[in-house]
Amino acid sequence: MNVLVVDDQEAIRDTLQTALDDEGFTVETAANGLEALDILRRWEPCVILLDLMMPVMDGWAFCAEQKRVGNTVPVVLLSAAGALEEHQKTLQVVGVIAKPFDIDRVITTIEGVC
User: Fold this and answer.
1) Predicted confidence band at 82 (pLDDT cuts at 50, 70, 90)?
2) 13 in Cβ contact with 31 (< 8 Å)
3) 74 vs 72: CA distance, rounded Å
4) Cα separations (Å) of 25 from 36, 60, 65, 87, 89?
């Protein structure tokens, strides 16, 4: 299963990549929404783990552009932002995980989506 991790914090990207690699997932990472859109042009994940607050292109702008270009890969918000359930409804994403996160919950969520 392919997973795209989009987060501006390198430590979080590295932690998730290592943990998901160990579980047998194929992982690509992006530091912002613009990098993620570039990856989606050449690679199709079964889920996107998306931070909301990032420079260059934040999670809100990424979701809007993803929908505009017709990309339907499911998104799970992985963020320290408040009101994640409200953001889930507004952005029409399949799930939310608050930071700091439990890696077992991340894996279970991915398996439920993929």
Assistant:
1) confident
2) yes
3) 6
4) 18, 26, 26, 27, 27
Measured from the Cβ of residue 99, the count of other Cβ atoms closer than 10 Å reads: 14
Peptide bond into 55 cis (omega under 30): no
| Domain parsing of the chain, residue ranges | 2-113
Query: Which residue do the tokens 């042009």 mark?
Result: 41
- The predicted structure's pLDDT at residue 84: 77
* CB atoms near residue 17 (< 10 Å): 16
28-65 residue pLDDT tens: 999 999 999 999 999 999 999 999 999 999 999 999 99
Whether domain 2-113 has CATH 3.40.50.2300:
yes
What are 91's strand-pairing partners?
A: none
